Amino acid sequence: MTFLFRLVLIIIAIGIVVVISLGVAQETYRREQIQKEIEDLRVQAEKRERENQKLQGLIDYFQTSDFKEKEAKETLSVQKEGENVVLVKEPTISEKEKIEMEEKKVEEEAAIPKKEDSRSNLRKWWDYFFATG
Asked: DSSP states of 28-50 as a string?
């Protein structure tokens, strides 16, 4: 009976070790997941901080007198005393010029002689299906 008692004690001990090992493994995995989540949140926080710094820089720039003066000049066409404003417009193509360009293109295409295919329909189909080139 002592052998049987020892065997039962060994099985119970192995069971306890397995249960404790599983608990430790689960806790370790959970801690790793938490650490990973903490690191992801830290990265997001740093990203948000950089975005906030950029936005604060823009806010600071928008509040400067240089920006206000530039916007007044560009948006409202305001000018200082003694300052001359020069407007430079990009050349635009009028509708008439567009139509003339299209007509010229059509004329050029019409002037190019088209090659006529003198092959018979049977030959064309043969070449279509069995051509090697």
From this structure: HHHHHHHHHHHHHHHHHHHHHHH
Whether the pLDDT of residue 133 is over 70: the answer is no
Rg of the chain (C-alpha set): 42
For the record, the structure tokens of 28 come out as: 């370790």
pTM of the full structure: 0.43
Instruction: Look up the domain containing 23 and give its range.
Output: 1-78
> Would residue 41 count as lying in a domain?
yes
Token pair recorded at residue 114: 């088209």
- pLDDT, tens digit, for every residue of 8-36? 999 999 999 999 999 999 999 999 999 99
Domain count, the chain: 1
